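=== RUN LOG ===
request id: a7f3
mode: sequence -> structure
chains: 1
length: 264
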Amino acid sequence: MSGVGKTHLSKTMRRYNWFHYSGDYRIGTRYLDETILDSIKQEAMRIPFLKELLRKDWIYIRNNIKVDDLGPVLSYVGKLGNPELGGVPLGAFQQRQALYRQAEINAMRDVPEFIRKAREIYGYQHFVNDVGGSLCDMEEPGIIELLAEHSLILYIQATGEDEEAELIRRAQDDPKPLYFRPAFLQRQVQTYLQERGLQYAAQMDPDDFTRWVFPHLFHSRIPHYEAIARPLGYTVTSLEVNQVRDEADFLALLELAISRKQWD
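=== RESULT ===
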């Protein structure tokens, strides 16, 4: 899940000549790039001054997505709720969720090819797939098996109530693109509306809903993560990941995770 240390670990390995493949970066720069730009241009065309400049090709708009800054992707996925408060209407939000889901599936299907490219083109002997926390909710046949065939799946498990509370707090303070399974989203929206005494999703405060729903999402994903790691992967804790300082530490952690599973 966001905040457990996936990107921290990947960036650490990057210093030791590992190819860092970011799923969210691939989504933003390849599979949602044009879609994001179209949504930005649509908003810009509402402003007469910018409309004329765009139509005459006097200016252009492009994404500036970085591995450490997924701002355009986050902005596009958006927050569900009242449009007057910066939220996305329910129908549009569901459509964007579907596009995000397909983009993440496509990005994961690209992993074997990028392993090849990393080795044959760029000369990297080691590869780390910094996958989004929503992988467990994609519900796409064959994706997990594909990753297990080409890589070692490592589940970073939050440990203890204090650690979980801190991860939730950080995620609420610095939200990242989130994917919700359709049935889960429908249930949570109905529960939120009942608790807040509202009738429609368009009445929801987008920031309040985002803060409210994240703990529910966090706990709903734990069984899905475990269902992946138990047969196909290995488990380490976020506290163990926080102690990794270099490549030797990381390899030692992998050895520990493998040996632990062998003795389970």
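=== NOTES ===
Residues 6-263 form one domain.
The mean pLDDT is 91.
=== END ===
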